[in-house]
Amino acid sequence: MANQKASIYSALAANLLIAITKFIAGAFSNSASMISEGIHSVVDTVNQLLLLFGLQRSKKPADALRPFGYGKELYFYSFIVSILIFGLGGGISIYQGIIHISNPEPLGDPTWNYVVLALSVVFEGTSLIIAAKAFNKVRGHETWWNAIVKSKDPSSFLVLFEDGAAVLGLSIVMICMVIGHQFHIPQLDGVASLLVGLLLVGVSLILARESRSLLMGEGISAISRQKIVEKTEAVPGVVKVLTVVSTYQSPEEVLLMLIATFKEDLNTHQINEAIDAIQAGIRREFPLIRYIIVQPEEFTKQFKF
């Protein structure tokens, strides 16, 4: 988690400084694409603040109102971030692009734009490298995409996607700006803004999908589920595990419920001892599973799963 916070702080600092310089350069050069890039950086800055706020909220201890803690606050704010990228970042950039394609304005001196874009690529690229290194440490041997899909910590891949989109967006703006000034095509400024907007919309849809999935509740992997079944059925007195239900409350907390059958000759005290052994064994091997509910089958015959 410390690595992810470092990547968020680096992205926050980079985006805040870049946003200011982009707006100044856009105002002097009358460039819609540069203004769109400035909006993009402002949205990214707000996103980092929301992620940090979500991380802080998710660490609140459980209370009477939230007996399983506040871990899902992080998933909620991650979803909000994806919506902001879509609405503010993508929507405004697309609008600016359409306006400047329909009514192109004479381009001003692009010198400051080139300076700002070059510096932005350096800052955003540095932030992207930091985010990529942080995510690389947690993905293990998985491919990048599989690691993103399986990740339970949206703060890791959100920063990665944002920085990647920023670098790609800057490249699009720079290419369109060079060609537009070289061949005197002011419409390309609007085209660049439109392309940046479409890029942000595409990224936001991917992030919204992943954040929504986490917010709705994702369970443990099939491999972990099978290990838990085997470990539980190895406990003396347990006959069979009927159902395994789990959900991530946060990247570091899992809620697990087991429904199992026990030997008929066991009394209540013996069943409780077996349940204690089940819980202790699972916690030793799976430290992220903080809440474990074991329900004997005889008490759940009326329910269907």
TrEMBL record:
It is a multi-pass membrane protein. One of its GO terms (molecular function) is monoatomic cation transmembrane transporter activity. InterPro entries: Cation_efflux, Cation_efflux_CTD_sf, Cation_efflux_TM, Cation_efflux_TMD_sf, SLC30A9. GO terms for cellular component: membrane. It is found in: Membrane. The chain crosses the membrane at residues 7-28, 34-53, 74-95, 115-136, 157-184, 190-208. PANTHER family: HUEL-CATION TRANSPORTER (PTHR13414), PROTON-COUPLED ZINC ANTIPORTER SLC30A9, MITOCHONDRIAL (PTHR13414:SF9). Coiled coil: none annotated. Keywords: Membrane, Transmembrane, Transmembrane helix, Transport. It holds the Pfam family Cation_efflux. The keyword Plastid does not apply. This is Cation diffusion facilitator family transporter.
